[in-house]
Etoposide-induced protein 2.4 (EI24)
Amino acid sequence: MSLPKFMIFFPSSLRFGLSEAAKSFALGLRECARPRLALVSVVAALVSLLLWLTVFVTWWEELVQLALVGLVVLAVVFAPAAPLAGSVVAMGSFASVAAPVGLVAVAAGVLKYVVVAAAFAVLVLVTMRLVVEWWLMPRIQQACLERYPALRQKVDASWHGGLRNVLGAWALFLVGGTICLLIPFVGAVLLFLLANYLNARSLVNDALDGIANDVERRKAISENRVATTAVGVMVAGFTLIPFAGLLAPVLLGAAMCHLSMRTVMRVREQTGSAAAATGSASVSALRSAV
């Protein structure tokens, strides 16, 4: 899959990352055409949706009141920092004496429903995400491996390597998310990108389970930051497509499998080429010495 011509002005690393993301996304769409994976994905999405729909319908009034309490707490916490941060949102909070009481009441009435809707969407996506990681990924990995027969050989990885990747992702979420929340306007966009990056990145360990060592897994993370973010954003957009969005669990898992496996293949080719070049140089040196 080729990128638009105007991207020739982008840095090469950015172009490569976006190209890898586009190829992996396209390969992920192909995996969605497998009837068994598609059926499991639709069932997982529907179960997640119905589960939280039942919860929110049953406790609707309580959740709305909880959202209102949360807004009040946030206003009390962040309003004192409004003059320093220059945040329009904070300056218009409940603690701002300059804001008309009526306007604040209307804003609170609208925002509490927005918060509830956002919480519903997040919980559905998180549930789908957990289903993908705990149930679907082994099936998706086996389907994707058909395109990479060289990776079928069993490779062991240490448990502490996987733990390091998980803790690193959580640390990035806590630190990076906090920083994004402190940046007015642009912070929301950065938080969106960070969330999609971490949502996709957290599947790397499962995508490479049993087929890559610790070094290759770290390479799959460090060399694909742009590509991983792009895959997460594209899948997030795909979920907005009616009915087709039910295939998002399989699409995300398959796209990350292909992206990670392609990276491992590339790393092994580079390592093999370097080893071959080193061996040739050693032979030449020995011949010269003789």
